[in-house]
Amino acid sequence: MSVNIKEWPGTALGSKDLEEGRVLTVRHRVRAEYAWDAGVAIGRYLRELKAGRLIARRCRGCDRILLPPRMFCEECFRPTDEWVYVQDTGTVNTFSVCYVRWDVARLTEPQLPAVIHVDGASPGMGIMHLLGEVRPEDVRIGMRVKAVWKQVEEREGAITDIRYWKPIAEEVG
Amino acid sequence: MPERVAIVGVGHSDIRSITPGVSYKELMFEAATRAYEDAGVNPRRDVDSFISVSEDFWEGTSIFDEYVPDQLGGALRPVHTVTGDGIQALGCAAMLIRTGRARIVAVEGHSKHSDMRTPYHIQEFAFDPIFNRPLGAHPHYLAGLEMNRYLFETGTTREQCAMVVRKNRSCAISNPRAVYGARLSVEDVLASPPAFYPLTELDIARPADGCFVMVVAAESVAGDLAGEPVWIAGYGWCTETPSLESREWGEAVYARLAAQQAYRMAGITDPFRDLDFAEVDDSFSYKELQHLEALRVCRPGEAADMLEDGVTGPDGDFPVNVSGGSLGVGHLLEATGLHRVYEVVLQLRGQAGSSQLAGVERGLAQSWRNLPTTTGCVIILEKG
Amino acid sequence: MAKVAVVGAGMTRFVRRAQETGRELAWQAARMALDSAGLTLKDVDAVVIGSAPDAFDGVHMKGEYLSDGSGAWHKPCIRCFVGGATGVFAPIQGWYHIASGQFDTVLVVCEEKMSSTYPHPQGAFITIFDHTTERALGPNLLWIFALEMNRYMTVHGITKEEIALVAVKNKKNALDHPCSQLQEEVTVEDVLNSELLAWPVNRLDVSPASDGAAAVVMCAEHVAKRVSERPVWVEGVGWHLDTAYWTNRDLYYPRYVEYAARMAYEMAGIREPRKEIHIVEPYDPFDYKELHHLEGLLLCKRGEAARLTADGVTQRDGDLPVCPSGGLLGVGNPIAAAGLMKVCELFWQLRGEAGKRQVPGTPRRGLAQAWGDLMQVGTVIILGV
After folding, report:
1. Closest chain C residue to A111, measured at CA
2. Buried b / exposed e across A130-150, counting CB within 10 Å, b at 16+?
3. Closest partner CB to A39 (pick from B22, B43, B75)
4. Which of residues 75-134 of A touch B (CB under 8 A)?
5. Which chain A residue is nearest to residue B130, measuring alpha carbons?
6. Topology of domain B5-117+207-222, CATH
7. Which residues of chain A neighbour C58 with C-beta distances below 8 Å?
8. What would the DSSP string read from start to end of A20-33?
9. Domain coordinates of chain B in residue numbers?
């Protein structure tokens, strides 16, 4: 009972307790290595990226064009029906300006992750990627962007075959 | 009386030693499509809850439950994951239904073992990081320790364990789901390369890829569905201890306690008499014998005699692993229990093809979560 | 359906780095929960464990590793997993163990030891992203929160100042929590001036990584009436998991939380949640998340949670006390244990035992909610006396 408990368990350590050897640790680096089968849908997606194109799947059940592509429609629970190329242009749905790496080490140049809604896919169909060739303070939601691809010989069939997405001029009207 | 619960639909993907053509999502979609078709349900409309089983490091993805819903028809529905064997998830499905808050629940388990490049380093990562992992040995050594103690306590021989391999790999030949069907002699097993004494390489079940999905329903709706119901009469699971230092090495305590719970529910007092057949864990050859004793199908030390007398063979009085078991079908990680249940369901429905047993009314499936765990599950299934 | 009660609760202190192993933390919380209910392991029929990614503790099949510390020696034991939402799902799983009639008394234990991961607990999060279409971009967990927060702010025109008020409130509330990791009062300016991690997220917008454990004892009505003078009843439970294709959803609104809440409200017979819920413990790993979740829980209109906060409605002595515990922002965030801490808080509050944290009046019904995965899952439990 909260009010009746005087002593709560759990012993806090500081970094000095470790550095000065007052407590001991056991270190282990796990060897966990994987080679995931990309499968039918993502396998084709990667091959098309290598060719400099983005591809999606259409579901005739809900009439959506799904990106990233999948062989099943999660909404209708049925197989999707056909491959559809989509554009390599889109609109920024949301973005961040990130100053730390995955291990929280500080970055000198911030990264600009974004969710980009891709032209030609159904409304709301976005992918996560990075923005480039733009100052962080100039990025805004709704900004039009276009993929900047790696050189053909550098591509390897990966999402990183697109280096990043850069701003493009708004269409007039 | 709590409401009766039945398995009303079953489905599986192709089972193969490797499945390079498909992703785990595509594997799951294939199994789910078949299970829903078998039950005659639309998951988007009819299924109230979804339960999957998985472990992050088998998948190579942290918080793997993220990637479960779409290919099961469970997007934006009540879905949860159990990090356990598929039979535990079936128990959870039955409990959910018995609360009255769900009528139809889907259960999924899969193995994409071939995605792992270092499966035994990953298995070693399940060992206690302070007491055991620094020893740095291959995780299968634990099975060697256990087998040695089991043989010592019961007087069972390596030859008798080899007979388990011979029986199960031979049964697997007639099972279209089995990957490792083969005609082997006892001498073949004993002469295969030593692995973790007293185990040889052929004493150890090899891995396979595959997915199983089952649809579980309350009695009040089971009759309206397409699939022939097989009733869940009892279930149980138990964890003995994670500690290597204080566990029983000769006896499978977890299986005995899990069976006690399941037998109590099902009203079983004499398993040998009250059950017609069983699919029990045989991920290592001796495990089939050790588990049969823990399940009280026979007394300690007698499982090997039953095997030698042909009692547990496909033509015996108490057939065990006519599917081929894990030795014959392949080990399917957390889906292993669901595979065993699948085989029992087919037998009770009379759909087991050339492996069909005559006149079976009630069967048992038992699983063990493999090394280094002491967690096991039991489920009893019966015809209407 | 059998009625289910919570009859005991316990937790360890939440700390950046605990001397105890994960098993020991689990044992400490489990022991305290049993003691507070006047029960022993002999009374426990089954154990439910909740814990988030194995990568934190650095143990594969972590539920097995934690089982004996959680009291599951020679007992039925199951571990559930719905990412960050696990801490509130574990008592839901405990509920269905008992409401089914299968078990009478269940011990529910949640543990996380995030300090085991090197070089930093955040490193464990890179592997939550899709291994083929996302991980190659080098994402970190802050990305998705920042993307969601930006979207939420932009759609509703909410400012960082308004959001920072949540961090200020919760960290202040936590000063009264004996297990709190952060004992510091902060101002809006402190939050805005703290280190910028991933715009719009600054360091003080975020809860800390922690080690800790929490536990509750749940039992069937006939046991509860025998062992407890003041059982706290489970009135509603709900959970929903949205599509894994998170970039296909508009992140500004957590519809999965709404669906989970509707499921729980329906079971509890609640028609007007704003009037019928007296205490709320929504999931607050980031300050904007509390606002996001209050909207998903239908406790205010979309985009209005910031105003409720500014108006003081969500203060401990306000009309709708929100995170009187101090939440994850103040008490700490050992993922699954933090979610169950919220359930412990409701247990203590509804029994009038929360001491300096006690909300005024006689609250009769509280709601705890957790969130997890790729902006994807909501879990809700409603307790009442």
Report:
1. C198
2. bbeebebeebebebebbbebb
3. B22
4. 75-77
5. A26
6. Peroxisomal Thiolase; Chain A, domain 1 (3.40.47)
7. 28, 30
8. TTSS----------
9. 5-117+207-222
Contact (Cβ atoms closer than 8 angstroms) between residue B164 and residue B307? yes
- Rounded to an integer, what distance in angstroms lies between the CA atom of residue B299 and that of residue C182? 58
C 129-148 residues with CB < 8 A to B: 130-131
Fold of C4-118+208-384: Peroxisomal Thiolase; Chain A, domain 1 (3.40.47)
Q: How far apart are the first and last CA of chain A?
A: 66
Q: Does A138 touch chain B (CB under 8 A)?
A: no
Nearest to C17 among A12, A30, A70 (CB): A12
Q: How far is CA B19 from CA A36, A37, B16, B209, in A?
A: 10, 8, 6, 7
Question: Where does residue C181 rank: exposed (0-12), middle (13-18), buried (19+ CB within 10 A)?
Answer: buried
Enclosing H/E stretch for B379:
strand B375-382
Rg over CA atoms, chain C: 19
What residue spans define the domains of chain A?
A: 39-167
Q: Chain C: give the shortest CA distance to residue A81, in Å.
A: 19
Structure token digits, residue A58: 């259409």
Burial of B118 (0-12, 13-18, 19+ CB in 10 A): middle
CB B294 within 8 A of CB B259: yes
Query: Nearest CB to B66: which of C72, C255, C376?
Result: C376
Place of tokens 């959870």: B92
Cβ distance of A26 and B130 shorter than 8 Å = yes
Do the Cβ atoms of C154 and A141 come within 8 Å?
yes
Which single residue is written with the structure tokens 């009040």?
B220
Min Cα–Cα distance to chain B from C304, Å: 24
In chain B, which residues have their Cβ closer than 8 Å to the Cβ of C66? 242
CB proximity A63 to B under 8 Å: no
Strand, coil or helix: B285: helix
pLDDT per residue rounded down to tens, chain C (385 residues): 789 999 999 999 999 999 999 999 999 999 999 999 999 999 999 999 999 999 999 999 999 999 999 999 999 999 999 999 999 999 999 999 999 999 999 999 999 999 998 888 888 888 999 999 999 999 999 999 999 999 999 999 999 999 999 999 999 999 999 999 988 899 999 999 999 999 999 999 999 999 999 999 999 999 999 999 999 999 999 999 999 999 999 999 999 999 999 999 999 999 999 999 999 999 999 999 999 999 999 999 999 999 999 999 999 999 999 999 999 999 999 999 999 999 999 999 999 999 999 999 999 999 999 999 999 999 999 999 9
> A62 CA to chain C: closest CA distance, Å?
15
As given in the structure block, the two tokens for residue C22 are 């994960």
**Pairs across A and C, CB distance < 8 A:** 175
Chain B residue at shortest CA distance from C103 = B95
How far, in Å, CA of C48 to CA of C10, rounded? 15
Q: What is the pTM of this model?
A: 0.98
Contact C146 A113 (CB under 8 A): yes
DSSP string across C234-275? EEEEEEEE--S-GGGS-TTS-HHHHHHHHHHHHHHT-S-HHH
Contacts of A141 in chain C (CB under 8 A): 150-151, 154
Q: Classify C139 as helix, strand or coil.
A: coil
Supply C188's token pair. 């809006």
Nearest neighbour of A102 by CB, restricted to C122, C131, C211: C122
What is d(CA C63, CA C110) in angstroms, rounded to the nearest whole number?
Answer: 10
